[in-house]
Each structure stands twice: as C-alpha cells, then as structure tokens.
C-alpha cells in the first residue's frame, strides 16, 4: 500500500518536473522566434530616432518617478532623466512628503515655482498639496508634485498619473538609470502595433558592478559579488527568455514596476495602482487585461529585448531575503485576488496559459521543492534513495539549468541587449555563476518564497522597507573624446 | 544525376549512424525504470543543445569580430572625409572631383581598383554613410555631396540589388537606407515586395510606392490594403511620403476615397486625418456618407475636425443636428469645427454646449469656442460670465489662466492641428 503511494507520488513529481522543463523549453523557442522577428521588425536605435523624432504624430510620454527622502541622489537622478532622448516627454517627480531636504533641493536647483493647478483625481491617491514647474527654459519638461504622505510607491505613481498630460506614461524609480534611447525603443513597439498597445515592458538589469558617469551607465559590467551576479543571471533569464517568450503570444503577465510603459487612459479606466497591493505592477496589468477583455477590445502587451534601465539590487543576503519574501507575499496575493482569471480562456492567452503557468510552476514550485528536499533528507536517513535514478535526474535538471544560461548568453549577444564593457570577461563571470547558481542561489530563493507564503498566510512581516543601496561606481576620469566623425558599430 | 546519387548515399549513411546510436542508447538503458530512460534521453539532448548553442555563440562572436574589423577599417579610412562632405565645415556644394580628393581615393580610381570588395564591405559602408547622415541630418544643402559619394561607390545599384535578392534582414536594411538617401527605386522591385509576408517589408515598399509611383499605380491602394496592419507609424510615414510626393509635383491620391474603401474605422481615421493635413478640401463632401453611416465615435470626431479645419461649411448643419447625440469628445470636436467655420449662425450651439451638457471638459470648450466666435460670441461669453453661478465660475477662472489650461490638457485644438508648414517641410 505505502509502496504504491510512494510510486504514484514519485511519478507525479517526475511528471511535474518534466512539465516545468518543457514549459521553459517552449519559452526558449518562443524567445528565439521573437528575436528573429525583431531583428527584421525593429531597426537600430538611430533609424528609430530618425523615423520618429521629426513627426508631430509621435505620441508623448510622461515619466513618473515617485520620491521619498532621496536628498542624496535626487538632483543627479533628475538630471539623468533629463538626458533621455525623445522629442515629446515630460518628467513628473512626485514628492511623497519627504522629511529630508528633497523638496528644497528640487526647488533650489531647478528654480521651481508653484503654479495654479486643478487636478482631476482620476485614480485614488493622497491629496496633492501643490504642483511646481520651473521658470528656467532648460527644465521645461519637469513637473514636480508635492503631495501628502502615502507611504507606498503606488500612491505616488497614482498622483503622477493624475497630473501627467500624455497618452502614455512610464513608471520608474528615481534611482533607476535610464538608457537615453529607452523611450524610442519602447515607443517603436507602440507606434508599429496595429492593435492598441496597452503596455510595454522594458528589459531591466542590475547596475551593481557598472560604472556610472553623468547619470549614464558608462561601463556595463557584471558584479563580482555573488548575490548581484546570480540576480543578474536571473533578470536576464526573466526578461530575455520568460517575458520575451510570453510576449510572442501576447501573454506577458507582468510589466516591471522599475521601468514600464502604459497607456494612460486604460490605466485610469482600470483604476490605477492598488495602494494596498504587495505586487502592484502585476496587479495593475491584470486589471488592465480584465478591463480590455471585458469591454471587448483587442490589445497587445510587448517586451523590448534591449536593456532600457539599470537598477541597483540587493547585494547582501538580508535585503535579498526581505525583497524576495515580499515578492512571494505579492505572488500569493495575486493568486488569491485574481483567481477568476486563472485557467480562464475568456481573458485570452494570459488567462489560458500564463496564469496557469504562474500558478503551477512559480507559485507551487517552491512548496514542492521544499517538500522534495525534506523528503530526500528523510529517504537519505531511511536508506531509501535509489542512487541510479537520483543522479540521472539530478544531471538532467542541472544540464537544463546550464542550457538555459547558455541560451540567455546567446540571446543577449545576438540581440546586443547590453553593450558590455569587455564582453568575454562578463560572459565568463555569468557562465561561472550559472555553474554554481542551482546549488547556492536557487535554494535561498526557494526558502524565501516559502517564508513569504507563510508570512502571507499568518499575516506577519508585511511592513515594507526600502532596500539599502550601496550605490554604483562613479567614473572618476572622463574618457578622451572620440575623433571627429568616427562612429561606433 | 551524380549529385542525387551522392545525396541519397550520404542521407542513408547518416540515417544508419543515427539509427545505430539511437538503438545503442535505448538498449543501454533498457533495463532501467522509465524515469531513468526519460531522464537519460533528456540529459543527452541537453548536452547536445548546450554544445550547439555554445558553438553558435562562438561562431557569432567570430563573425562579429570580423565585421568589427571591417567597420573599423572603413571608419578609419572614410569617416573623416565623409563627415567633411556632409557637415557644415565644407563649402555648400562640392564637385565630384573634390569629393574624390577629400576621400583620398584618386589613386584607387585611376588604377581602376575596386573600392569596396565584398558584399559585407558594401553593407557596412552603406551603414556608415547612413549613420553619418543621421549625425548631420539638420545640415541642409549637402545632398549633392552625398549623391556624389553614393555614385562613386556604386551604392544605389548595390542597394537595389540587395532589396531584390538578399535575405530579409538585409532587404529591410537596404530599403531603410534607400529611404534615408532618398534614392529612387524601380517600380518592379516595389511591386515584388508589396505582397511580402513580412509586414516591415510591405510597409517600406508601400511608403516608397506612395512617394514615387504614378497616379495609376496608386489605384493599388484603393482596396483594403492598409486595413489589417495600419498603425501610428504608417500614418507618420504616409504623411512624409505624401509630402515628398507633393514636393515633386505629383498629384496626391484621393484620401477621402481611400478612407471610404477601408473597413477598419481606425484606418479610416488615419486617412481622414491625412486629408486634413494635406488640405484636401475638394473631397470633403465624400465624407458625408461616412459621417452618416459610421457608428465609430472616433471616426465621427475626426471627420468633424477635418470639416472644421478645411472650412467645409456645407457640413455645418449636419454637425449641429447631431451635436447632442454625440459622446463628449465628439461634442468638443464639433464645437471646434463650428468655431473654425465661423459662419456666425451657431451661437445657440455654444450656449447649448455650456448649459445643456454635463461633462466639464465639453462645457469649458463651449465657453472657449463662444469667446472665439466673433464679436457676438464674445458678447455672449461676457453675458454668461456675468450671470454665472458659483459652481460655473471655476470655468471662467480656468479660462483666464493659460498655465492651468496647458496642464489640464484642454488645448486639444493645438495638439490636433500642428502647423503643416513647420512640421512637414523639414529637410527629411
């Protein structure tokens, strides 16, 4: 009797493992197809710029960046945002009642004055105290919103949505480093889409290890520290395989809160960001999808394969633990709040494929993995492990992990997603990281997920704390200017 | 015959090897449980896949390195000279000989040497030229110098050859380069590409066709050609293409008819907007049927704006009659249109717009239009202001504050009608 149960259980777990591997394989194939299509349909940056920069029909974009107690970096970050190359955009900085000198510094440095303003509260946010614009022509794109303290990024983002004046908006963090061509890359997908594009996800990588000069990443490099290195691999896998793969069947489930572009009207009609949600970015996209489907409108959500934004991630275990347990709580919340979308073909490929995938292979997987680990420990002491079977299954999973890493490097190189400073050196670091990642990093993430689920179930640990930033390297010495007329390939 | 024999031979040999190792593999794990068999198969497949992807990566790196070497060489040799020819440093117009001298290729030409040997070199040279053209895009009067460079290096014939024979990726690059260099392209090549399965290629062919082809060739588009894939970018490029067509003295197509032939309302909107941009006021009456038959609010809004912009006075009564039945955005468009027509007969419409509608945006726009509707309109505006209730006073406060207006997006009129002269007469 027990033996039969044991065999059935083993086969179920094995079947589950095979399904995960096959679904990843499917994403790799889809991502490859997407890359091939984009090679033809998405021209290089200079061509995109040439096509869009002179036209009045190029849609405008508002960049919304909520800020809370950012006095150390706010001025540099606003200057960095102003270096974005796009013909028609505005920057909306939302000061969430900072208790430090953030607001004073903004006023002093950008010559801001209060303007008479009547804000239509299209999406819920804490009251706006005042709106400021610069008297200096150079900063005409800048709008600063001073509001009452909401305590969440989502509240600040909603205030920004209420104030922004363009058809599309990008939501980002003030400490993100945005690539100058990012908006062109994202808007290219918007303007060439025959159906309304409600959101565009941008590839975002870790700035840990990079060198920054004048608010731009001057030398893109992979960090030597293990935690950021593993996360870099994880981000690349997520954006270049996962999201790009899903976007080919219009089933992208998430646009990162760090840098994502949305259709303002659709966001407003969907209710904006949920101020109570732990995963407000996923939550909002799912509500947008629900709105579009329920109102019978066709839409697309796409992914840009080239890196558009750099963000500093946790570089130690403690902040990583905090971030990942929060993500796990967010995932649990999404699964419980949006359960009617799961396995529901009415909501298109997202309801029929992506959300079931998330439920089965991202939500349940950590629980099964943790149980499997405990089961193995028990079998080890009980002498019940069949080593012949165990090693080949282990080898299968390990080779698959390596295969995924190699594919990521290939896609990155092929699409020239990142202009690495010393490609060989960085790829070597990533490859070495990929060899040890399954043994070191993956168990940590699984542990964090399980803890996050338990925190959600027992309603503990829900206080949000910002990640402690170490800061990125700044270039001391400016390089020699390029010779006249020389271009780079 | 021989080749078929050898092909069959090698195919069979290959099949035999594969079958042999497959059977060997199966019998190797024959006594193991199913789980082990599957895992072993999968692991082997993964090892092979890792090998293949790694090799592909290395090969790609190798070819990219070669490409970079050629690029570097071209950059070193020509970039400075081309920059000089395209930039403001040079005289407005150089002769062919001057260009040759500046590029330092007199000896090569005298000895009849081939300047660009391989296809790869030609592709990269075209890219270099295109990139430098982007750099100096705002400098006027250098097109002649560019034309000399293109002719000296035989780039036009190379690009046309690429467009008709190369792989899809290179085809798209070549078509983009042709557009950037403003080169003519044979109609047979366009016709060949216009039905391509790749949307990008179809689009590029379409833009070239609209820019260059004769009136009769334009009949091709009097179909549902645009319907499936029309997007904002099409509108941008069609506007540029029509502008180029106009500057060459070619007749513009009947855009009202094109709009009528489409089935997708979004596509119809594109052509109605283009009509407005190119002042096709002679075709306004052809939009009457579309206005009366369509249920698509955006299309009705666009037609209203177009009639207003083109001063199609015959349509005024139709707009006024349907005003109260329309959604808010269309109401605003009708108010704008009637104000632009300025016949002086529709003061009641402005009053209705302010007093008999609920949406604040419509009410505000009604006030704005009232103010701009001649002397009588302004008098009515002041009278309405004097009689305004407390809640109505905020509309007048907005009216007197231009910064607020700008920020609450109420200058739609401006946004919808940028000056055609300033926008489309750029040196594109």
CATH superfamily of the domain at 59-241 and 252-319 in chain A: Spore Coat Polysaccharide Biosynthesis Protein SpsA, Chain A
Helical percentage of chain B: 55-70%
User: Would you identify the regions of chain B where 5 or more consecutive residues have pLDDT less than 50?
Assistant: 407-428
Proportion of beta-strand residues of chain B: under 5%
**Mean pLDDT over all positions of chain A:** 87
The strand count of chain A comes to: 13
Structural class of chain A: alpha/beta
Total helical elements of chain B: 24
Going by CATH, the architecture of the domain at 59-241 and 252-319 in chain A would be Alpha-Beta Complex
CATH first level of the domain at 59-241 and 252-319 in chain A: which class? Alpha Beta
Describe the structure.
The complex is a heterodimer of chains A (489) and B (428). Chain A has helices at residues 2-41, 45-52, 74-82, 102-110, 153-163, 182-191, 226-248, 264-270, 280-294, 317-337, 348-363, 365-382, 387-415, 423-457, and strands at 61-67, 89-95, 112-115, 128-134, 142-147, 168-172, 177-178, 197-206, 211-213, 216-219, 259-263, 300-311, 473-474. Chain A is α/β, with parallel strands linked by helices and 489 residues long. In chain B, 70% of the residues lie in helices and 0% in strands. The model of chain B is unreliable at 407-428 (pLDDT under 50). In chain B, helix 13 (265-277) runs parallel beside helix 15 (297-309). Chain B has helices at residues 2-28, 34-86, 96-103, 106-110, 119-135, 143-152, 155-165, 168-180, 187-193, 199-212, 232-247, 255-261, 265-277, 288-293, 297-309, 316-322, 328-341, 347-355, 360-371, 374-386, 393-399, 402-407, 412-416, 420-424. The chains are: A alpha/beta (489), B mainly alpha (428). Chains A and B meet through helix 1, helix 2, helix 6 and helix 13 of A and helix 2, helix 5, helix 8, helix 10 and helix 11 of B.
